[in-house]
Amino acid sequence: MDSEVFERFRSGDEQAVKWVYSKFSGAVFALSLNILRDRGRAADATQQTFIKVWRAAGSFDPTRAMEPWIYSIARRTAIDVYRKERNGPTVEVVDIAEPGPSMDRIWEVYQVRLAVDQLSDDEREVVRMSHFEGFTHPEIAERLDIPVGTVKSRSHRAHKNLLVLLAHLEEPS
Amino acid sequence: MNIDDQNAGYLADWEGHPSGQSEKLDATRAALREPKTWADPPFDVESNVIASIRTESVRTVDTSWRAWIPRLAGVAAITLIAVALMAFWPTGTNVDLIGTEIMPQASGVATLDATESGWAIEVSLTDMPPAEPGTYYEGWVWSDDGKGVSIGTFHLRGGNKPVTLWSGVDVNEYPSIWISVQTEGAGNEVSDQIVMRGRFNDSTD
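ok -> C-alpha cells follow
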C-alpha cells in the first residue's frame, strides 16, 4: 500500500478508508463467514475488523504486507464473535475446537478471495462462472453474449494472473 | 460431466505448473467452488465502518492524566470549576438527547444543575430499552478536541426512570454528551456503540 494512502487511512480519511475496505472487505467477509457460518454475524465481525484495523494502524509498519496483518485481526475478531455468541470467555485462542474448516483452509479462502478481487471485472466474472457456477466456455460465451474465443482468452489471462497473485502471498505470521 | 472435467481444458496453465504446486492448486480450485469465497458483505457494513471511524477519529480518549493528577488537586479543581460554572450556566438547563442510528427511536432530556460538588446531570430517557445482560449504559461528556470523561453508568432494568449522572469537568469545555452501550469487563474506553447524543450549547433552557 502506498505510504501516503496508509497515512491518510491512519488519520481516518474517508476515501482512504473506502479504499482499504474495498480491497479487503470481500476476503474478510469470506473468512468471517467460514468461521461463523452466518451472514449477520459475519457482517458484524467484518465491521468490527475494519474498526480494529483502523485503531491498530498507528502501530502498524506500513512497509510490511497488510494481508497477513488484517487476516490475523479478522480471524481473532470472528473467533471472539463466535465465543461471545456461545457466552464463553473472551480469550486469545489459537484455533476453534469445533468441527468446521481448519485455519489453513480459512487462510486459503482469504488468499483466494483477495486474489480474485484483484482481477479485472471481466476476468473475475469468467472465473466465477466457470468455477462457482460450473459453466463451460461455450455456456459462458452464450450467457455473456461474447465469442468463445474471448472467454478462453479471458480465462487464460485470469488463471495466469491468479497464479501470480497467489504465488506472492506469504504465509500468515 | 463434473466441474473438474469441465475445467480441465482451460486450467491447462495451472496443470502445467511445476509439481509440488498441485496441492495448492487443488486448494485454490476448492476455494473457488465454495460459495462463501464469493460472498459479499451487506452494503451497510461499509457505511457503518466509515461512520464509526469518522466518529472515533475526532476524539482520542486520554485517560493517562487520571494516573498522575493527585486526588486532592482534582477535588480542588472540581470545586473551582463548579463555582466558576455557576456563573455561566443557570440551574435547570435542559439538553435534548437524540438517538443515533443504533437506537433511533430513543430520545431524552438531560437537565444540568450546578452544585458545589460538580454538575448533576439528570437524564430522562424515552423508548430506551434496559441494557442487555452483560452490558450497561455509560454517560460521557466530550470536548471538541476529542477528550472524553465518563459521567456514570446505569442499566434501566427497573424502567425508564430518571438517572442522575455527575460531571466533574467544565461542561463549557466538554459540551457534548453521549450515552454508550458498554460490555462488562471490556475496559474503560468508550465502546463503538454510541446510542444517544446531545450538545449542551445547542439546547435552550
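Residues 91 and 113 of chain B are 5 Å apart (CA to CA).
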